[in-house]
Amino acid sequence: MRTENALKYTIDTILTVALGYKIDCDVYNYSEKNIEIVLENENINFLICETDDFQELLEGKLSLSSVSAFDNYSKIPVVKMNGEENLYKRSESKITINFDLLSLPFILLSGLDEYLSEERDEYDRFPYENSICKKYDLAKLPLTDEYAMLLRKIIQVECPDIDIRPRSFTITPTHDIDDIYRFTGPFKAVKSILGQLVNTGNIREVLLAFRFLIQCFSDKRKDPYFKGIEKLLEDSRANGLKSVFFFMAGNSSAFDSGYDIYDENLKEVFRKIDASGMTSGIHPGFYTFRDIDVLNEQIRRVAGATEKRITHSRQHYLRFDRRKTFENLEEAGIQTDYTMGFAEEEGFKCGTSHEFHPYDLKNDRPYKIKEKPLIAMDVTLSMYKKYSVSDANKILETLSERIKRTGGDFIILWHNAYVYREVEFYNKVYLEFLKKNI
Predict the structure, then answer these.
(1) How many folded domains does the chain comprise?
(2) What CDD domains is this protein classified in (predicted)?
């Protein structure tokens, strides 16, 4: 799996983060122990752990050392080669990097652990518990980006003629529109509100839900889920941010609401999104992640409703098959995916907060599609982890600090359903996060 092509891909990805732009390099030499490239007339030799050690690394059994990050912000794990303590050494002919900066990033970027595993949760997703992120406690650490910054440090000292264009920290709010109306009938309305009371015990928010219910009798646009879409759009616009809204177009099922993508009230929403310079994308339904035909049909419907070409996507429930879904998305004309994150754990599933091309392990080449990895999601914070407002703020601040240091993009997901259903969390976590970091 760790072929010459795969290692070259990893170097290209890390260099793009390190330099701030894509640069061409050629492989000069490759073996089981190293890969040497030529970069702007400089030879850089990357030492890598051998096959047996790589297998142990993949299984979470290889002992790692720790070194200071590029700015001494924290300690980061590394595989040291040949007992070397220094990051690199310079000879007349080349720069040799003494830590394996390629193997762990390749596993993270390619999802090799997920690709090889048969472990799945109740929703047929690869569990965080079985990931290399869990095995080496990497979820809160953008390891690929940290390694890129180490490489940048070497280049700044040893290759001063190579241009470096550091990227600035950005935030991209994203919103999965799983349903457009909460109250679609009296029975469902009462059941929904009573369920909220049982689950949260928050009388104030339950009374707010009843108020919305009464208002909906005269105007469906006052439904809290529909108003949630408008509120998300308004708050992004007020903060100078460009949201991506993912809409569904599947049939009703146990996991899909089956709302009408051609609903009359949505037409004005699509117009406002477009007028604000924001993006409408596809939120493919629960059963699409291995079915190209169903995926294509749903993309066609969203394109018809929005009157836009659909090129952005995030899978419903974050359901993804590393052996199939990227291939299907690419074939369906999707250019950018936003699915790569764990539902049950916030952080850096791919080891990076930068856009990158995923790797096609079957064909030993990068995909054309780009991935914008998901960093944090509302339901991860409030439901899976059950954080308090204070704890949620702290973890988002920790993640944003680490992204700022490497000039990445904080992709955050907030559902329209949790704008007025968890008002305190929305105001004191999501909006406070935006205000602190723009």
Answers:
(1) 2
(2) CE4_u7 (cd10931)
